[in-house]
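As noted in the main text, all predictions were made from sequence alone. Below is one such record, for Type II pantothenate kinase.
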Amino acid sequence: MGIVIGIDVGGSTTKIVGVADGKIKNPMFVKATDPVTSLFGALGKYIYDNDISLSTIEKVILTGVGSAYIDQPLYGLPTAKADEFLANGLGAQYMTDLKDLLVVSMGTGTSIVKVMNDKVEHIGGLGVGGGTILGLSKLLLKTQDFHHIVSLAEHGSLDNIDLQIKDITRYPLPGLPLDVTASVFGKADANAPAEDVALGIVHMVLQTIGQCTIFASLNSTIKDFVLIGNLTRLPQCADIFPRLEEMCNVRFLIPAHAEYCTAIGAALAYINKKICREVG
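Prediction:
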C-alpha cells in the first residue's frame, strides 16, 4: 500500500498527515484566507517538504467543513471524502487504543462522538469553543489575537471573576468542594484586569465543554473522554480537566497529535475500508 494522505479542511486552516505502514508521518498545519487556498497550500507543501512523489500516493481523503468546496481530484490523485464525525472517532480510537470512548472535538464549536468498538455515532455538541473565546475576547478585551489571549490568561486569576462555592457557603456541598465554580463570571467587576477576564473566558469555555461531556456520558458505561482539536493546546487544559476527573470519577485524555486526529481518522477511514465518497 502506498501513502494515504488524510486532510482535515477547516474554514481557513488545513491539517494534513500521511499514513504509511501503520505509521503517522509528519503532521502539518497550514493557515490561509479561504479553504481552497489552505487545502492546496497544505497538500503542496506537505508533498514538497517530505519529498513525496505523486506516484507513491495511493489515496487522498478529505474531511471537515471546508471539503465541501472540493468537487474534483487534487493534482489528479485518487481523491475521496470521509464523514468528519467518523474521522474524529477513528482518529481518537487509533491514537489511544481505547475501544469505548467519547471523542470531544474542540474547535470553533464542539462536537461529541461516541465510539463503541466499531460503531461510531455523533451524539451531539454545543456552540461553545474557540469561536466563543475569540468572540468574547473581541468584545471584552478588544482583541482577537488568540496567542495574545492565551498569554493574558496565563497571568490571570479567577478569584475576582468566578463565584465559587466558598463565596456562598461556609461548608462544602455533597460532591462539591469549596473552590468549585458556582457561577461563571458571577464575581466579575467592571474594572477587572484584562488577564483575569481572559482567564475567565478560557476557563468558562473549557469547563463548559468538560461538564457537557460528562453529562453526555451519563446514560452509558463510558468513562474515557478523548479531547481533540486545536483547543487541546491551551495550557489551562492541564488544570481544568484533571479537576473534573477528581470530582466525577472519569478520565480525560489528550492523545499525541490531538489537533490532527481528524486528519488521521480520514486516512484511516480509507485504510479500514469505511465508507468514503469518491470525488470526481
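Residues 3-86+260-278 form a domain with the Nucleotidyltransferase; domain 5 fold (CATH 3.30.420.40). Residues 4 and 19 are 5 Å apart (CA to CA). These features were considered when defining construct boundaries for the mutagenesis experiments described in Section 2.9.
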